């Protein structure tokens, strides 16, 4: 009997040592089910219909699999605000963290610590310069989306004239990629002159000021590509203040209620809509695969839908519109 007890104690001790050695090494435990597993979702910013729609996809898919979701969002798209949220989440050691990094470089250290604490990391929407810490990365193909915006704007201005890019934040992978995709694609139109890109730091008022200053320097400006909803809101305001609404064509990004209203009112002539709900679903599925030892797709690109006032009522456009509640 003493021999049996000693054997049991040795087994228990071995299990404890194994568990201790796993924690802090960046190795996520594998189990045969994800039922009861916990996900923390950390979007780029709170109150954004894009991330709300993504949250709906995450919650719906997690519920199907028996997982729970806790969402914590910064008030601004700012790594200094997102970092403490990641740190707090890591301290609770959820089974997985799905995150939209607000900076490709600055968010790597806190997410690496979270992984070392035992949480699987899934990247959604934005990404990191080093994606090796992530189980999966699911996002819009933002370079292709920027190219689609260039094609849409070129069509709107008859493939001639001056165009401006308003990028929302330097260092944010999505902003950089959309800008790059646009700039490369617009070169294919010899009649179009790119007057350069300016950054509004997610501030609509700054975007409005950029538009006003650009119009002063280039009164013949023909078009604007606004790389997110805040840039588009500010662009519309700047054009309204200058009496140029409709005279300068605007292609905006995303398809939340504000963007759709701008489209209907004619302040914006086209929208590049992402598929945030499906991004959320795919991210949960890949995280679940990783937690149960199944094959994982490391990178999943998502497409976009170009919406104009003429196509807004079409089923494909309606399905691409974002939600404000789940």
TrEMBL record:
The keyword Ligase does not apply. Gene3D superfamilies: 3.40.50.2300. SUPFAM superfamilies: Periplasmic binding protein-like I (SSF53822). It holds the Pfam family Peripla_BP_4. Residues 39-294 form the Periplasmic binding protein domain. PROSITE patterns: PROKAR_LIPOPROTEIN (PS51257). One of its GO terms (molecular function) is carbohydrate binding. Residues 1-18 form the signal peptide. GO terms for cellular component: cell envelope. It comes from the Bacteria. Keywords: Signal. InterPro entries: Peripla_BP_I, SBP_2_dom. This is Sugar ABC transporter substrate-binding protein. It comes from Amycolatopsis bartoniae. The lineage of its organism: Bacteria, Bacillati, Actinomycetota, Actinomycetes, Pseudonocardiales.
């Amino acid at each position: 009997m003493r021999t049996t007890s000693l054997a049991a104690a040795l087994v228990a001790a071995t299990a404890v040592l194994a568990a201790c050695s796993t924690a802090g090494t960046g190795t996520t435990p594998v189990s045969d089910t994800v039922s009861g597993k916990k996900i923390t979702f950390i979007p780029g910013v709170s109150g954004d219909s894009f991330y709300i729609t993504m949250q709906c996809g995450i919650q719906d898919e997690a519920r199907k699999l028996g997982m729970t979701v806790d969402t914590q969002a910064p008030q601004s798209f700012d790594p200094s605000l997102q970092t403490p949220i990641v740190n707090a989440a890591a301290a609770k050691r959820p089974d997985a963290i799905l995150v939209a990094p607000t900076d490709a470089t600055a968010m790597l250290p806190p997410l690496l610590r979270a992984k070392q604490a035992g949480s699987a990391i899934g990247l959604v929407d934005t990404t990191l310069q080093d994606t090796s810490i992530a189980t999966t990365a699911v996002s819009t193909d933002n370079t292709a989306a920027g190219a689609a915006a260039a094609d849409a704007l070129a069509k709107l201005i008859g493939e001639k004239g001056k165009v401006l890019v308003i990028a929302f934040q330097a260092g944010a992978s999505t902003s950089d990629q959309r800008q790059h995709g646009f700039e490369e694609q617009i070169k294919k139109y010899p009649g179009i002159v790119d007057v350069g890109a300016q950054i509004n730091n997610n501030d609509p008022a700054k975007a409005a000021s950029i538009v006003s200053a650009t119009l002063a320097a280039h009164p013949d400006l023909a078009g604007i590509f606004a790389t997110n909803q805040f840039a588009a809101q500010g662009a519309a305001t700047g054009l309204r203040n200058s009496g140029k609404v409709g005279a300068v064509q605007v292609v905006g990004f995303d398809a939340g209620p504000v963007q759709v209203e701008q489209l209907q009112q004619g302040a914006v002539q086209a929208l590049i809509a992402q598929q945030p709900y499906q991004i959320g679903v795919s991210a949960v599925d890949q995280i679940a695969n990783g937690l149960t030892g199944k094959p994982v797709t490391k990178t999943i690109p998502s497409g976009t839908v170009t919406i104009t006032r003429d196509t807004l009522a079409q089923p494909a456009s309606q399905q691409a519109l974002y939600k404000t509640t789940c």
